[in-house]
Amino acid sequence: MPDTTPPKTKPILRALTGETLSIPPIWMMRQAGRYLPEYRATRAEAGDFLSLCYNSDLATEVTLQPIRRYGFDAAILFADILLLPQALGADLWFVTGEGPRLSTITDRAGLDALRPVADIHETLNPVYQTVRNLAGALPPEVALIGFAGAPWTVATYMIAGRGTPDQGPAHALKEANRPVFEALIERLTEATIEYLSAQINAGAEVVKLFDSWAGSLKGADFDRYATEPARRIIAALKDRHPGIPVIAFPREAGEKYSGFHKQTGADCVAVDDSVSAEWVAANVQVDGCVQGNLKSSHMVTGGEALVSETRRIVRALSGGPHIFNLGHGITPDADPDNVQRMIDAVRGG
Ligand code: CP3
Questions:
Q1: The pLDDT value given to residue 5
Q2: What's the confidence (pLDDT) of residue 97?
Q3: Residue 161: left (phi > 0), alpha (psi -120 to 50), or beta?
Q4: How close is the Cα of 153 to the center of ligand 1, in Å?
Q5: Per-residue pLDDT, 1
Q6: Active site (annotated) includes residue 39
Q7: What is the model's pLDDT at position 4?
Q8: pLDDT at residue 292, rounded to an integer
């Protein structure tokens, strides 16, 4: 059969298929967020954060804001990793200034009370509508990234009912009742496949798996609960949607970043700022595209250090496929002008 797939011209898609570009494409985690006055205005219009996530028109608008302002190479769907537990039946709310709160799962009964995976779309349809809106609204050179939380990270919130500094409650359940813990990881693995698959059907061109708390899994636990679910999710997506690239972000994986492409089938491994770009070039980029890894605090402090660090990372990763990004999300106290300085340093050398 003749190959009818269109040539990949979007810079991010080229990097994700292994091309080394002279100027790395760039986007930024949490690029639609509170550091932008236009985001704060739209969020106020929506009323609260969750209403913004479920309002497809306003979620489309905030996704496009950083594209209009900066011309990033990718837009990331505006939503949250905690919408999936909500779609599975967990209660979810956000406490201003503190963060998310959820009903907790501590035993078999809590797990059994969750809704079947097939029912998630009922809640998540507005998210798919946002993806469809974006697929029709983005400039042709800008790629659309969908996302989900990885099972372990989402489980840490479902077990504790909130963010925790050390993921203590999730580790405790893992030790006290491994069958229930593993059944939750299994349920989330299946639900994540369906969720990301629906985003791809709606028009997402790339998907990213956020495992923000992967670093607290050690040894065999990392392999079982970070690597293995990522491998299964990626295999299922590749099977259903050949050619859709996947970015995996096992944050703070340290030396476990090395080999993660091969172990999971990810097209790109995103790295936080606790590893040096030079180490990443030698140990991770040898297996494929990498994304990262400027400290997000530079978006607050700016100055010469921002420019020199940006250039150092671009240089260190110039020998292979690289997507420039921060090591974690931009924070609300960041100066929007520093984002432009970073982009200029990446694109202008
Ligand atoms: O990156 C983007 O611009 C896309 C949208 C996006 C959000 N959250 C919007 C958001 C993405 C990809 C996420 C992922 C997410 N959400 C993660 C994984 C990435 C990471 O940061 O480690 C996690 C752990 C969450 C859960 C979550 N959502 C927390 C802990 C919080 C509260 C902390 C905070 O920053 O306020 C959120 C809220 C949230 N998600 C905001 C945004 C823009 C701020 C909400 C607001 O406007 O008040």
A1: 59
A2: 87
A3: left
A4: 13
A5: 54
A6: no
A7: 58
A8: 96
Q: Which amino acid type is present at position 258?
A: S
Can you state the angle between helices 120-137 and 178-202, rounded to 10 degrees?
A: 40
Q: Are 42 and 119 in contact (CB under 8 A)?
A: no
d(CA 159, CA 127): 24
Whole-number pLDDT of residue 2: 57
The Å distance, Cα 161 to ligand 1 centre, comes to: 16
Selecting among 14, 35, 39, 43, the annotated active-site residue is: 43
Q: Is 291 exposed, middle or buried (0-12, 13-18, 19+ CB in 10 A)?
A: buried
Residues of the chain with pLDDT under 50: none
Decide if 323 contacts 12 (C-beta within 8 A). yes
> Residue 119 has what pLDDT?
98
Which value, to the nearest 10 degrees, does the dihedral of the CA atoms of residues 143, 39, 79, 91 take? 180
34 is catalytic: yes
Q: Answer positive or negative: Cα dihedral of 199, 203, 207, 213.
A: negative
Phi-psi region of 83 (alpha: psi -120 to 50; beta: other; left: phi over 0): alpha
Strand partners, 99: 95
Residue whose CA is at the smallest distance from ligand 1 atom 34? 99
Question: Catalytic: 43?
Answer: yes
What fold does the segment set 11-347 form as a domain?
TIM Barrel (3.20.20)
The pLDDT, as a whole number, for residue 6 is 58
